TrEMBL record:
NCBIfam families: PRK09485.1
Protein name: Homocysteine S-methyltransferase
UniProt cross-references to Pfam families, sorted A to Z: S-methyl_trans
Record key words, sorted: Metal-binding, Methyltransferase, Transferase, Zinc
Organism superkingdom: Bacteria
Amino acid sequence: MVTILDGGLSNALEARGQDVSGALWTARLLDESPEEIAAVHRTYFAAGADVATTASYQASVPGFVAAGMTETYATELLRRSVRIAREVAAEAPGRLVAASIGPYGAYLADGSEYRGRYGVDAATLRDFHAPRLALLETEDPDLIAVETIPDIEEAEVLVDLLDDIGLPVWFSYSCAGTRTRAGQPLADALALAAEVRSVVAVGVNCCDPADVPAAIELATATGEPAVVYPNSGETWTASPEGGDWTGSPHFRPGEALGWVRAGAAYVGGCCRVGPEEIARIAAEASRAG
């Protein structure tokens, strides 16, 4: 059975006229316009998604505090990300909520989730990830979605933390070809992720669609199902002004049928992939049985 994931949150919010520029990215709307996040979740469910991924990818207590919020309110916003998704999922029985855990580089907001090697030690990464994992868990999401991890060094910290979390986990890396964004063999990174006791799938996201077939082969070689949700094929280039996407999109929803047949159990889209593409992916997955 194939589980259909949603698409990009940022592009869907922008399509609704929302501004997601700035260091908090989509997480800013947890404070300013939570109803817009809920509307995007509904749109993806209507398109055929089985899972709503929370708006917590870029969210962290340090990030909110740096934006001028109190620690207490920052904690509330993290928990709110799950509550919003759960309330929408309750409108469509059978739908699931995945609490998003983005990389440390997302908090830095400098594009380093596509580079890794942040220049910090494991203790710093642990101190960053552990509190928000604990906060998100208290709101009882159905899954934890560890996303866009660029580096085995960060993955090692997360694997240790996830063994203390009693929820199913999918673990996906950002990659370039068959290597992590930090340059390590993707096969090694996926094998490490597969060590999480509660893992339900390992794979890649926010990568070029052309990288998906090889990633599925490497992921299923670990003995776990694959999770894949590439971006549009454009390239994110960070800048002091916030960065931009460059290049031409070449995401083809019709390729999802091949991904499923190759062993992908969780399939969707990431940045710049919207509800229309998710609807077509859902149709292709249905064809796969």
